[in-house]
Amino acid sequence: MYNAASINKILKGELLQETGFSDIEHLLLDSRKLIFPETSLFIALVSSRRNAHQYIEELYRKGVSNFVVSEQVPLEKYPKANFIFVKDTMHALHALVASHRQQFQIPVVGITGSNGKTIVKEWLYQLLEKDYNIVRSPKSYNSQIGVPLSVWQMQPEHNLAIFEAGISQPGEMLNLEKIIRPTIGIFTNIGEAHSEGFLNIRQKINEKLVLFTKSDILIYSKDYLALNECVLSFHNQLGEEGPELFAWSRKTDADLRIISVDKNDNHTRIDALYKQEPLHIRIPFTDEGSIENAIHCWALMLYLGKEQEVIQQRMDLLSNIAMRLELKQGINNSSVINDSYNLDLGSLTIALDFLQQQQQHQVRTVILSDILQSGKSDATLYEEVADLLQKKNINKLIAIGKNISREKKSFQQVEGLKSQFFNTTDEYIQQFNADDFHYETILVKGARVFEFERIGKLLEQKAHQTILEINLTAISQNVKLYQSMLKPNTKLMAMVKAFSYGSGSFEIANLLQFHGVDYLAVAYADEGVELRRAGITMPIMVMNPEPASFDAILHWHLEPEIYSMGVLMQFLEEVVAAGKTEFPIHIKLDTGMHRLGFVKKDLPELAQVLTSGASLKVQSIFSHLAASEDPAKDALTQQQGRLFYDMSHELQKALGYAVIRHIDNSAGITRHPDLQLDMVRLGIGMYGIDSSKDMQSQLKNVSTLKTTIAQLKQLEPGDTVGYGATWAATVPSVTATVRIGYADGYPRRLSNGKGKMLIRGKLAPVVGVVAMDMLMLDVTHIPDVAEGDEVIVFGADLPVEQLAAWAETIPYEILTGISQRVKRVYYQE
Ligand SMILES: *Cc1c(COP(=O)(O)O)cnc(C)c1O
């Protein structure tokens, strides 16, 4: 057990203030994730955007009494806390966990590579959980922060550890190596993606290999040629010191030589030679990624000396890994987070964080199964779970399983928590009543054997099979990327108008509120009202405040954009009648867009009205750039900037108080940093789209529109397709009818070959005309195409920009045009 004194010794820091040493169990890096104040150590990390020292006061108030800092703190304000002073808090985090790791002499598997890290890790867990008490990275915790948090979980009861490591910059792996210190290495593969920060693929491979410098064995596939060359030279350089190699290959001689891979129906049989013996496994997957991941796992099990029969049995039972937490629309106006594939304390905590982030409903419900293989006694375990549910303000618990039911008492003691207990999933389903759920957010979280996906099905609204998937993690990363480009004091307003560019409403706003964005902006008051009703409390600007909505604006404390004397006078009258003072408004200036806004000659009169009473308070002055993305129009942008400077200065002077000034949109942030001023308005960039190639390559894809094949048709030459018979087969052809049409927002002008969709990684052109609810694709050239196949309309591999280009429009129009009947599914990676 640690305390501030022993940790200070490890960190060779300076104990600034000591007030008695209580036990420390948890590392806290994100103040919003506080659960156990008494036993947490807060390490105040500092990045270019965020300085966590600012949260010390709040955390102290909430009961945290151990801190690691690298800046002066007013100690007298925190008489009951220990402060460890170090030079660099990130470095301290790494040093502390590296020292923790040194206490354990168990096999530690370290996994890196471009793809498949999380799946290999989770599959190894599935394959080995019967033999070992395993500690592993939660979800995809593989970064400079995720890895320390993962390794910190190592406890004496564990006898196998599996951690993944990912890097985005040269130099980072050295830190992770010291923390993980893997004895067994797996290098999954190498792809071209995420190459920023690296000169070339070899540099990237060599950097990743640093993880295995002190390992006993390294498992990898020889079939990646660059990888194989780098591994061999790494091996030669280190000689005796470095790891032994365990290579597998589908093409050439290797420790595990794969001879054949046969796919049928839903299974793949893989035959191989190992130590001259023929072996085989069968896995319930047929895609190439799964086959590669399974072979890595197979190699590791052979290395560990597992019996071939055991390997075969368990491989056949591998199951899908939920890589993400999904938020879906549920029955009776509820929201459902379905995470029914695995369950342990780490992933439960993450899922509860996501649940807590949801503000849209007041009631939060958790459906939870037994937690298997925790390494703790049931009494301790469920007491901890009950504590967690209490800390996360859960209102309802439906507990399923014999063990959790036996520990009822722990949950019944939690104040404000209604609980019900069932022995089996069947028992629960038999008495399931949809009327038990209304306007609540429900987390479904169970161990695999409990088959909670059956409960998920009962709770989720039946969806038409065309869905728009929104990657919330990608939005967060995109926001952070733009934030990293802002001047230190520039605020951020996030544009969530038009259902967040088609991607959702409160789901996105919840996320942005959670990330501490400063402002939201919507187009119309009713969009703002919806956000308020869903629990969004941050300031919201309304860009088109119509007189009919002034009531709602006042009632819900929305902040109108005032763009003309007419609007100003009407709104003022309303505010005065309501008896409000200093009601926040935003003044829009027209500097060249010629859409809405005051022009220069209006300013004296505007200032005169604004200063004549105290009913209104100007929160910000802003203008909009007409062509910030276009280098050919930079002169216009600069001219708009100068005019804005001049006009906002004049107005501000007349007002006599400071206001926020803003003009940059997404493209402006990167192309015109001199115009970032006090705040910027981020729109399309947050949703993963930027007109510059360089930015585009750094952004993460946010939206994926997908559907399925409803029916396949065999056509003879001369057969025509669709309304108006505008397309005819010239050779024997196969067409696929898919469930998306212009009523879903798929442009009709993409008829007859203009538009294409992705099926099994291949492009299939639209044939015939796009109908209201359906269209047809030519799939003659796609092997194994089948009814029910997934069809990607746009996404990471078929960018929405491409679709927009085919339709001769801009991505904004495509995204915002996706109709509301297309269900949105939100997920967090
Ligand atoms: C939509 C909008 C933005 C955001 O523009 P993007 O190009 O999507 O970043 C900014 N300001 C105003 C006034 C807008 O209407």
How is this structure best described in words?
The structure is a single chain. The protein is an alpha/beta fold. Helices cover 32% and strands 23% of the residues. Strands 15, 16, 17, 18, 19, 20, 21, 30, 33, 34, 35, 36, 37 and 38 form a 14-stranded mixed sheet that branches. Strands 7-8-6-9-10-11-12-13-14 form a nine-stranded mixed sheet, sandwiched between helices. An eight-stranded parallel sheet has the order 28-27-26-25-24-23-22-29. Helix 3 packs parallel to helix 6. The two termini are 32 Å apart. The model has no long low-confidence stretch (mean pLDDT 93). It binds pyridoxal-5'-phosphate. Pyridoxal-5'-phosphate is lined by residues 495, 543, 624, 665-667, 681-685. Pyridoxal-5'-phosphate binds at residues 495, 543, 624, 665-667, 681-685.
